């Protein structure tokens, strides 16, 4: 007799699911973004979460972070503070000084795993931009890249493993540094066909790709186009 393999049969044969895809659920509120990390066992997706509360301008970091990750977090908040008016980012009191009477808590879940390395800067910036703008980051986007204080995006390592991790998680778009574009040749063609890659050289390009409809820069009032 023919043997029918359906959903119920698979569950009996393979057992319960080992992994749960929780991407959409985790990104259902502002202040969450998906980064890509490299580990000795391969790439993995990494959620970055942020919240704000009344306080004295303190930045709290949790999640077993190394010194480089802590530096990335401080760089991210400094860049956002210096560009708050440009992107019309305000704290709960409507101030462009994002730390005015405000504390920020950045959390990297899976705290039992030590996380370090220069690749989370763009994710932290995107997470905080979501928090202070009240906008949701696209749930099908993951990113990797380090930043400078001037908003440049620097190349990172482990691109192949990171992209494979995004593909396994069912994501559709991956933001990588422009200088890592050459590393895409190492990725299997079937994986490249399933993903859309955005190469970014600056944080403006990262934010435009991470949010639906882009991340519009607030125009300065009173400026007119010159005819000269």
From TrEMBL:
The active site is at residues 119, 162. SUPFAM superfamilies: Ribosomal protein S5 domain 2-like. This is Lon proteolytic domain-containing protein. Belongs to the peptidase S16 family. It comes from the Eukaryota. GO terms for molecular function: ATP binding; ATP-dependent peptidase activity; serine-type endopeptidase activity. GO terms for biological process: protein catabolic process; proteolysis. It comes from Neotoma lepida. Transmembrane segments: none annotated.
């Amino acid at each position: 007799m023919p043997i029918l393999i359906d959903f119920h049969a698979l569950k009996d044969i393979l057992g319960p699911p080992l992994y749960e895809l929780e991407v959409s659920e985790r990104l259902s509120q502002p202040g969450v973004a998906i980064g890509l990390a490299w580990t000795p066992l391969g790439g993995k997706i990494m959620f970055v979460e942020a919240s704000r509360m009344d306080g004295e301008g303190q930045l709290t970091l949790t999640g077993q972070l190394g010194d480089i990750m802590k530096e990335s977090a401080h760089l991210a908040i400094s860049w956002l503070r210096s560009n708050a008016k440009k992107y019309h980012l305000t704290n709960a009191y409507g101030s462009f000084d994002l730390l005015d009477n405000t504390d920020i808590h950045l959390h990297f879940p899976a705290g039992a795993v030590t996380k370090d390395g220069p690749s989370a800067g763009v994710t932290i910036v995107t997470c905080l931009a979501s928090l202070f703008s009240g906008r949701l980051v696209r749930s099908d986007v993951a990113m990797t890249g380090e930043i400078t204080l001037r908003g440049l995006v620097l190349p990172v390592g482990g691109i192949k493993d990171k992209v494979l991790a995004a593909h396994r998680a069912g994501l559709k778009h991956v933001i990588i540094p422009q200088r890592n574009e050459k590393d895409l040749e190492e990725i299997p063609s079937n994986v490249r066909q399933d993903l859309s890659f955005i190469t970014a050289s600056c944080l403006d390009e990262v934010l435009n790709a991470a949010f639906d409809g882009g991340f519009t820069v607030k125009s300065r009032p009173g400026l007119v186009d010159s005819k000269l």
